[in-house]
Design brief:
This protein has nine helices and 13 strands. By secondary structure, it is α+β, with helices and mostly antiparallel strands. The chain folds into two domains: about 160 residues, Fructose-1,6-Bisphosphatase, subunit A, domain 1 (Fructose-1,6-Bisphosphatase, Chain A, domain 1, 2-Layer Sandwich); about 140 residues, D-Maltodextrin-Binding Protein, domain 2, CATH 3.40.190. The longest helix is centred in the N-terminal third of the chain and has 19 residues.
Length: about 325
Amino acid sequence: MERNLALEVVRVTEAAALFASRYVGRGDAKKAFASAVDAMEKVIDSVSIAGKVVIGKHNTDNMPLMTNAELGTGNGPEVDIVIDSLDGRMTCARGGQNSISAVTMGEKGAFFIPPTLYMEKIAVGSDAKGIVDITEPPEINIKRIARAKNKYIEDVTVCVLDRPRHKELIESIRRVGARIILITDGDISGAVAAAMEDRSIDILMGIGGSMEGILAAAAIKCLGGDIQARLVFKDDEEKRHAQEEGITDLDRIYMLTDLIPGKNVMFSATGITDGEFLKGVRYVSGGAKTDSIVMRTKTHTIRYITAMHHFDYKPLY
């Protein structure tokens, strides 16, 4: 994948963010999501790729960006795509933080394709790579992070999704004395922010979506950070579903290279609402500003793109 393609992909996440942002705080998550999907589909179909969605959302909704959808002009490199037009749709609808639009692309077979299940994750930056272990208690990993970063334990910041299932995790973190940032949605943002040097988060812990885990892992690989994950099963039926999907080891710990085996991967995201990772869409007279990031594993180049969109001139896709 050429570097020029990276800038084309940014247009895709920008479009989704601009359209979804019209619904920030309006209480309608479905409209926000549908608007993001519609805009993203129109733009990505103008990109010179022969793309196939290998992980998408809401396959049963007959959405245009669902798994197995073919995207792009058909002329260009063949790529696998993992796509989330609106990560944090309820947050967007309620006017909260950390909602983004995100896309990652890679060569055929670049991504582990997990069953549609929850996934436990632990994510850190390059300064703590190889330090954490998802099988260890939270307090052990936090102490390791403190040593690796030369910080006091009470200065280590852990990002956790604010969910009832994380009650024990949160209590463990508080007992050891670390700081916690609780996010209501959008754990892609939390995981990627943990891998960035200039963000306040040191580590992300907890359970979230498996698709979000793959998107976060793609960005973390570009950043040189680290992530570990394992599938979480609510019951025997989910275990049977995983086995039917080809998962033979239900207890397997997935390392970064397992999640993202591809060597040529690109990641792009645009903020919809302000968060730990990116600023959200800001409206000004006659237009709006967006903040995006695009990165590639091939070069580890990270580009921050602030764009001014003039609505009198910008196509409505």
